Amino acid sequence: MNVKKFGYFVVLGLALASCATSKQVATPVAPEKTTSRETLLTEDQKNEFEYLFIEGIKQKKLGNVSNAVSIFSRCLEIDPQSAVAMYEMGTLHYANKDLTSAALLLEKANTIEPQNKWYKISLAQVYQQRRQFSEAAAIYDQLVKMEPDNMEFMYSKAVLYGMAENYQEAIDTYNQLEKQIGLNDQISVAKQNLYLKMNQPDKAFEEIQRLIDSNPTEPQYYGLMAEMYQSQGDSVNALKYYQKILEIDPGNGFVHFSLAGYYTEQGDFDKAFEHAKLAFQNDELDADTKIQYYMMQTAQADKSDWTDAQIDELLDILHDKYPDDNRMFAIYADHLVRQNKLAEARDYLKKYLDSDKSSFEIWWQYLLISNDLQDWNALYSDSNEAIELFPNQSALYALNAVAALQLEKYEEALKIVDEGETYAGDNVNLKIQLAIYRAEANYKLKHIDEALQAYEDVIKMDPENFMAMNNLAYYLSVQNRNLDKAERFGNKVVQANPNNPTYLDTYAWVLFKRKDYSLAKFYIESALENGGSDNAVLVEHYGDILFMLGEKNKAVEEWKKALDLGDGSSVLPQKIKELRYIESTDE
C-alpha cells in the first residue's frame, strides 16, 4: 500500500510579519556615530574612519565584497571597538556563507552595543544558519524583553525554541503570544505539533478542539482533527470528522483528497479512487491543486495505488475540465511513456508544441522520443527547429547530428558537430558524443585519418570509453592499419565486456586480420553464444574464419545462414557461389 498524504490544512491563520526562518540579514538604522570611541580618536583618525566607512558601504552596495571587507578591516584598525564596522563585516561574511567569521564579529558587536536590536537580529540569523537554535532563541528572548509588544520577536522566539527541541518553552511563548493577539489558528497548529512531539496527544486534540469551538463552521479545523485521529490510528473518529466537513461544506474538494488517502490506508482502493474522481471533478479546486495531487500519486508508477485505466480516467477528467491547459498534454505524454506507448506520447507533446514552443523541457522530451522511435526524419527536422529556438542548448546538436548521420547527411553532420562544439563548454560527455559523431561521419566520407583521429581524441577524453576503443580497433583492422594497436584496444574491451557480442566480434576480426585464426574462432564463437547468432555480419565473419582454418564446408554453411539473415557484405553471394573467401570493401 502506497499512501501519499495531501495535507488538508493548506493555509492557516494570520501572517505574523516575517518568521524566524528568514535568511535575510536585517539592515540597521543608520547609527548616529560611526565610531564608538570618538573622544579617543584624533580628528584625522575620525575623518579617515568616516571616509573609509562610507567607501566600504559603497563597495558593499556595488557587490564588491572583498573590497568592502578590506575597507571595513581598515576601519577596525583605526577603531578596534567600532560595533558598526564589525556589523558590516559580519553581514558580508554571512552573505558569503562564512558563518564562523560572521558569528565572531556579530557577537563582539553585540557585546559592545547590547541594546542594538539589529545586531541581535543578525546574530540570531547567523546562529540559525549554524543550527544553533538554542542560542538564536536566547537572542530573541532578549529582543522580547527589549520590545515586549513586538509580536514578530515573540513568534520568532517560539519557533526557534521549537527548532531547539525545547518544546515546553516554545509552548509557553506561544501562550504569551496568544494572550496578546487572541486565539489564532497558526499558533494552535504549532502548539498541536509540539504536543505531539512531546507525546501528549490529548493536549494536541484540545488545541484543535479550541479552534473548532471558536468557529464550528470552519471545515479546515475538522480536517486537522481528522488527520490527527488518522495519524493516531483512530480511523473511526477520523472518518467521522471527514464526514463532518461534507455536512458543513458539501462542495469542499479538499476533503475528497483526504478521504482518498483515508480509504487507501484502509485498503479500500475502489472508494479511494471514487473520492479522487470527485476531487478532480470539483470546480472549487483549481487545476494546480489537482495536478499537484496527481503528480504526488504517480511519481513512482510502480508503486501507484491506481491502475493505468484509472489514471486514464482521471486524465480525461482533467482534460475535459481544462481543455486549454497545455500541461494536460505533457501529463498525458508522461503517462504514456511509462506504458512504453512512445508514438502516442509524442503525439501529445506535439499538441503541446503546436500551441506553445517556448518550453525547452517539452522539446527535449519530444526529441528523445523520436530518437527512441528511430524516426530519423522527424528527429532531423524537429531538432533543426529546436536549435533555431534554443541555439545555446548544446545537447540539441548531438540529436541533430545523430539524425543527420542516420539519414546519410555526412557533410552536414560534420557542420552540426562543429557548431555544437562551440556551445559544449565544459560538458565533457557532450564533447565525447560529438567527437564520436565526427568520427563516424568522417569514416563514411572515407576521411579515414580524420575518423581515426577523432576516436583517438575520444579515448584521450575518456580512457575507459569502450565503444570508442571498439570502433577504433575495428576500423584499424578493416583498413589493415596498426593491427598491434587494434589488438591492444580490442583485448582491453573484451576483458571488460566479456559477454558483449559486438565487442567479441570486433576482437575476433582483429585477430583474423592478424592471421591468428584459432583464437579468432574462439572469440567469434563466444560472440555467437552471447546473442550474436542472429546478426548477419557476425555469422559471415564466422564463415570467413572457418574458411581460413580449412573448414570450407562449414564456412559455406555459415555464409548461407548470413545470407538468409540479410545485411551481410556485398561479396557474400559471390563467396557462396565461388566457394572461397573474398575480402569485402564495404566496411
From TrEMBL:
Q: Which keywords accompany this UniProt record?
A: Repeat, Signal, TPR repeat
Q: Where is the signal peptide?
A: 1-20
* Residues annotated as transmembrane: none
A Pfam family assignment: TPR_16
Q: Does the keyword ATP-binding apply?
A: no
Family matches, as InterPro entries: TPR-like_helical_dom_sf, TPR_rpt, Ycf3
Q: Which domain of life is it from?
A: Bacteria
Please list the residue ranges covered by the TPR repeats: 49-82, 83-116, 117-150, 219-252, 432-465
Identify this protein by name. Tfp pilus assembly protein PilF
